[in-house]
What we know:
The complex is a heterodimer of chains A (101) and B (486).
Chain A: H1 5-25, H2 29-54, H3 58-88
Helix pairs in contact in A: 1-2, 2-3
Chain B: H1 13-31, H2 39-58, E1 63-65, E2 70-72, H3 74-100, H4 106-124, H5 128-146, H6 153-184, H7 189-198, H8 205-222, H9 231-237, H10 240-265, H11 270-292, H12 298-319, H13 322-349, H14 365-368, H15 370-384, H16 390-404, H17 408-434, H18 448-466, H19 468-479
Antiparallel strand pairs in B: 1-2
Amino acid sequence: MSLGLAHFLVLSAVIFSIGVIGVITRRNAIIVLMSIELMLNAANLALVAFSAFRQDPDGQIFVFFVIAVAAAEAAVGLALIMLLFRNRKSINVDDFNLMKW
Amino acid sequence: MISLPIINFSVIYPEIIILVTAIAVLIADLFIKGDRRAPISLIALAGIIMAAFAIHAQWGANVSGFSGAIIVDNYALLFKYIFLVGALLTLFLSVWYLQREELFSGEYFFFILISIVGMMILSSSNELITAFLGLEIMSIPLYLLAGFDKGKLRSNEAALKYLLMGAFASGFLIYGIAFIYGSMGTTNFDEIVRALSSDSLDTDPLILIGISMIVIGFAFKTAFVPFHSWVPDVYTGAPTPVTAFFSIAPKAAGFAILFRLLTVAFSPIFVNLSTMLWVLAVLTMSVGNLIALTQRNIKRMLAYSSIAHAGYILVSLAIGTSKGTEAGLFYLLAYTAMNAGAFGMVILLGHKGEDDLTISSYGGLSRRHPVAAATMSLFMFSLAGIPPTAGFIGKFNIFSNAISAGFIWLAIIGVINSVISVYYYLRVIITMYMKPEADSVTTVTYPPSLLVAIILAAWGTLHIGLFPNGWLLFIRESVVGLYQAL
């Protein structure tokens, strides 16, 4: 059995769903950040698969941009988590409840 | 043989000016120490004015650069004007506030300017990858701005919530772009139109999934219900001038790309998207207004009200014609003026620390500070859509266009919503004029920079309301080119 486009797309959909579920259910801010990273990489996988399937480099170039942006987002995210930990001694998302209506 | 891409740097002159200014601000911040930092804001101001001149010089052009990734037309330029006005107002709102809260530093202006660069790229992007880059250049400084009050837990929380939701949304956006790219083999808007109109008989489900996910990605930024959950917390936790900036500029940027993407690039299959936008518009208007009714905190109330206002603009997006786009852009202009003014008044009437920003703290304001109370009332009337203010003309435009385009139910729901909204805006006015004085008497000082912002916003609110014709012509001139090619 040879690997086709569909295999890659299904894998990327599975990883993306794992990421979404992780963001929604996990309470640790760092794990939420990691789940977002999973979502982005699932999209990258889909982009590379499409790009290889279409013999067109645009998708792979986009992946480089996504990786760069993800790195910037992770840097800012970890800095903010550190700041919060310093002020509150917790990185549990449920503890961030100062503002509720 | 590799052919070199055609790069036309002249199309991004305004972006380059703002970028250079941002770097100049950072360098100046290195050399100026302590309390003498106030002139840094003047550098930012000069950059914004120069960029406005650069945009003025480009007006009427219709050129693309960077192999078609960037397009400069009047539509993009109008949005760039809106972003610059937003940045200008934020600048004037910020200076005194930052000094009061002892937060003044060069990075603040750097973040504002860089996020303006991102918005400008977003508004003139003619391609999905560029749009994604513009969105991220805009968003990352915004996350940092939300957390700018580093010592305050509230501000930290706002920043982290904004970042997690924003990055979550980016995930959807990229996945959506991957689907569009996979099913059409291109990310360029012109080629997307061509591909869609050539085989309109059977629309690939991948395309519909892709565009829906892209809309979800941008819906987080523009705060449509049900993607709004971060808005009230981030708006309350962020420093107030930053909140004002959030409610004006990124929202306009989100709509800039949504109008271009949905009503131009995806115009051949817009019929399939219209229902989704209809539902989003109704949800956004209704939920925003109904929850705003129960709010005690003025910033939280304005946060929900900004969600509701996004709903009104969504009505004009759901219409999907050039008339609808005109009404939407007009409303964005009016919204920029009145919302900046309302937040300016919140800053003026606040005090150091900002722990108590409840509506009831405005009790009896009219007796102590009649001018402040009258100005706040003007902005509240405008947000509620009462003539002769900008808000009234804006809403009238949107709903009359919705009716003439056949969206009668949408217009009716919109009007009902705007009636509901009158209640919570009027409550602020009633508190100021008819309630006894609050226990903690607010001492109001009138710093000149803040007054400039409020006077500008008040002038905009009244001028757009009283003399809308010139503004309408200006907007028609900017929208007309957008739909010419179709």
